[in-house]
């Protein structure tokens, strides 16, 4: 089964999306709501709208098939319709599944959020601009447009198994949005997403991801990318924002956090697997990167999971 670095990262951060609400409305309309989660997305199923949010001076025009991801924004206002008629104002909440406003469907929008673990929130928030606008009219957005239509169909038809279908389509929506964003962006922000999308660096990144415990040398990685040592180091830093071996160490720490979250992995064997000469060397590196020792991290994660389980009503 083929693997790639973007898929690895999405699995590592446990990326998934959930549909939180939507509406169908005709005529002139306006809605505004607060954003409680850091990665909110909205998809224009039909019609058009104008989006405004904090920190963005120029309003964003959404057309049919467009998707927008709001990164760490506090509020959003959407408006649509044409003509001089009265303006319908309504309130959306995260609890609304789908809200038919006036029995018309000139403009239809569905929305939700991208859910990731603690590490994933930091990675995606750092990798994405304040607003990601993916245009549905682009040639490479066909898969995205199809997913939006299927999602909408499952939401409004309420067929047997709709919940499962919505979850599956929502998962694929995250990948489709990132693919389209990478393809449509003039230049990605410096960071891990730009690294995994860089074709020249990809062979070296593939090696680091495949064998994170190997003591990779800069010349080996440069040779894999068919570049000189100096050219490779300069390009990697300009794309990733950090040197290659710093990137490798951070990847090791992400793998370590997953191992400590998911089971009873002992720290000593984990240190060896990730290429550290001793448990103490690994623990020191982990604490520098994460802020706490490996055992304290595991304890904190388990306490958080236990608290969530206790808060779920029976």
Please provide a written account of the structure.
With 314 residues, the chain is α+β, with helices and mostly antiparallel strands. The chain has 2 domains: 5-184, Jelly Rolls (Sandwich), CATH 2.60.120; 198-304, Arc Repressor Mutant, subunit A. 47% of the residues lie in helices and 20% in strands. It has 12 helices and 11 strands. It has helices at 5-12, 118-127, 142-157, 162-184, 192-197, 202-210, 218-224, 229-240, 244-262, 267-273, 279-290, 294-311, and strands at residues 16-25, 28-34, 39-46, 49-53, 60-62, 67-71, 75-80, 87-90, 99-100, 107-115, 131-134. A 6-stranded mixed β-sheet has the order 9-1-10-3-6-11. It is globular, with a radius of gyration of 22 Å. It starts with a helix and ends with a helix. The relative contact order is 0.12. The mean pLDDT is 85.
How are the secondary structure elements laid out?
Layout: H1 5-12, E1 16-25, E2 28-34, E3 39-46, E4 49-53, E5 60-62, E6 67-71, E7 75-80, E8 87-90, E9 99-100, E10 107-115, H2 118-127, E11 131-134, H3 142-157, H4 162-184, H5 192-197, H6 202-210, H7 218-224, H8 229-240, H9 244-262, H10 267-273, H11 279-290, H12 294-311
Parallel strand pairs: 1-9, 2-8
Antiparallel strand pairs: 1-10, 2-7, 3-6, 3-10, 4-5, 4-7, 6-11
